[in-house]
Amino acid sequence: MLEDRATAVSSPTQWPAAYPKGYAVVDVETTGLARDDRIISAAVYRLDERGEVEDHWYTLVNPERDPGPVWIHGLTSEVLEGAPLFADIAEEFAARLDGRVLVAHNAVFDWQMIAREYARAEREAPVRQRLCTIALSKELGLPLPNFKLESLAAHYGVVQQRAHHALDDARVLAEAFRPSLRAAAAGGVRLPLLECRPLTEWSDRAVPRQSTGGLGGYGGYRPNSWRPSRKRPACPHPNPGRYEDGKRLKQGMRVAFSGDTSVERDLLEDRATEAGLHVASSISRLTSLLVTNDPDSGTSKVVKARQFGTPIVDEAAFGQLLRDVEPADG
Predict the structure, then answer these.
(1) Which of 237, 230, 222, 263 is nearest to 325 (CA)?
(2) Do 40 and 61 form a contact (C-beta atoms < 8 A)?
(3) Is residue 202 part of a domain?
(4) Are residues 150 and 65 in the same domain?
(5) Residues facing 207 on adjacent strands
(6) CA of 119: how far to CAs of 112, 116, 153, 164, 221, in Å?
(7) pLDDT digits (tens, 9 = 90+) for 258-279
(8) What gap in Å lies between CA 196 and CA 263, rounded to an integer?
């Protein structure tokens, strides 16, 4: 039982005063990984400030379209047909999140899916901070072979019963998060908390797709994401070259982004575009700057940036640089 498990790290007598007062460990299963995919099940384990379980909650959600990779999550159209819509469970879900730090494994994904669902329902999720257990594992220097949930669970001896079932995934994560939290507290580790900004823009429009017998009568169409997809205008300024540490950004510089950001990625890219920068989707020898909060992540963009000698800054530093971008020549 989660409540009875003896953790590997004892609770310190002096708990860090700056640590949050409560957590909501969350897992959502979805129809896919794209911005226009939907939540089909959600689970929340509420924990107190020291990681002890207070209660848990689980629900299915009718996505009003095909359920996506059934072979992964096991939720068929028939199972989801009678489930509540997200709008129907939004209030209960919000009550579980309210006033707590959202904790998830690869938290940016869960947060963005949740934020988009609330935006579609013309509401806001009451979440202001999130904590990714991948980032926490790195802060603690855990000797994991990789950063999959199953590896984190195995490190703490947590037994997975139903992988890709939201309730069991949330249970496993809650059970692994508690000793991680206590290890952080014992070592005086600063928790890798990131800001959550609710989405306020959204739209639904039908876009063609192959019919898979989806829910809700969409047939060969599915709803689009909270924000209409659009092609960014070409940057009107020539590329002045790489960013140099200590100097200003200059209009026309090619900027790429990698990994989790506290500000929604699209909004961050919008700010860069409005400042006259060229937002690049990949890294090349012409890239002026890579923005990432995890320069040791080993993502393909980070690896290429290292190979090409591309300068790297974090999101906070980039935000400062955006305040004073040098105009393009001429």
Answers:
(1) 237
(2) yes
(3) no
(4) yes
(5) 222
(6) 10, 5, 33, 25, 20
(7) 987 767 777 788 888 888 999 9
(8) 7
Domain boundaries, position 111: 22-195
Query: Are 188 and 274 found together in one domain?
Result: no
pLDDT in tens, 101-153: 999 998 888 998 999 999 999 999 999 999 999 989 989 999 998 888 999 99
Q: Enter the tokens of residue 92.
A: 């209960």
Instruction: Name the pTM for this structure.
Output: 0.65
Within-domain flag for 103: yes
pLDDT digits (tens, 9 = 90+) for 191-213: 999 888 777 666 654 433 333 33
The 3-state DSSP class for residue 290 equals strand
Q: Which of 171, 195, 219 is the last residue of a domain?
A: 195
Indicate whether 215 belongs to any domain. Answer: no
How many domains is the chain built from? 2
Distance CA 261, CA 277 (A): 18
Q: Dig out the tokens for 17 from the structure.
A: 């005063």
